[in-house]
């Protein structure tokens, strides 16, 4: 298999890159990986996607993007990329079915994955009260009582943001000390809607169809109690899906792929990276889509100038 553009990942950035590359009449393939659609497949309602005035379900949005990419001729293959040779020309992508795809250029759009608590009930209720993105889902908790798990800047940011909607926010942290910066912690502590439950951890998410409460263990005396909550926001970090590229591409200390400022170009010519595998700050569907567009345009220019 030989292509001009090979795209790895099927979230907003990957699908957008496929739309732009295929519309430019480039022979384009997109490998979806094991989780087509990325994190939006776990989001019930997306109300901040431009043009969807009444909101749209996350899986429905991903289906529309996939159809749009296919309409312009992009090949979409439900295969994972298990190994890469990005140094050679053409670049070689080893696939989960044992075949190898050769690509003049590669766009990496593998995204990032939220770190979860891995407790009973959490997976079942993702998208039904359990979330890892306050800016995505906070709106749905107007007047509700929610909890945020974490002790870093992300947890404080999530907690403060959620007070725009929730009637109360409880930060649950397994230590008596915080990793959050002083300014972020002070801001949360000074917010009258935010309370703190220290030396505690969530051991179970309660509810059948939606979150109704949390079982919380006191780490000092090992007692536990069921407390009523309408939502749980897990803010213990994300990890970029970059492991198979890290021995060839430059990544930062957290594993996010680094790109030339203002571009999607990695340290290897003809290899571009877009979306959450690069962005550890905003992590929004619309920003991911924007960088997917940029990556496709840059790949087109790179190919046209004699890759």
Mean pLDDT equals 93
What is the 3D form?
A: elongated
Count of alpha/pi helices: 6
Helix-strand sequence = EHEEEHEEEEEEHEHEHEEEEEEEH
Domain module count? 2
Helicity range: 10-25%
| Biggest sheet statistics | 7 strands, mixed
The fraction of residues assigned to DSSP E strands is: 25-35%
Question: What's the CATH H-level superfamily name of the largest domain?
Answer: FAD/NAD(P)-binding domain
What Rg is obtained from the alpha carbons, in whole angstroms? 21 Å
Counting DSSP E segments of at least 2 residues, the number of strands comes to: 19
Poorly predicted runs are none
The CATH topology label of the largest domain is FAD/NAD(P)-binding domain
By CATH, the architecture of the largest domain is named 3-Layer(bba) Sandwich
Distance between the termini: 18 Å
What does this structure look like?
- By secondary structure, the protein is of the alpha/beta class.
- The protein has 2 domains: 2-113 and 238-305, FAD/NAD(P)-binding domain (3-Layer(bba) Sandwich), CATH 3.50.50; 130-234, FAD/NAD(P)-binding domain, CATH 3.50.50.
- 22% of the residues lie in helices and 27% in strands.
- The chain has helices spanning 12-23, 58-71, 134-137, 153-162, 182-189, 285-304; strands spanning 2-8, 28-31, 45-46, 56-57, 75-77, 81-85, 91-95, 100-108, 112-114, 130-131, 145-149, 168-172, 194-197, 200-206, 213-218, 224-228, 231-234, 238-240, 271-273.
- It starts with a strand and ends with a helix.
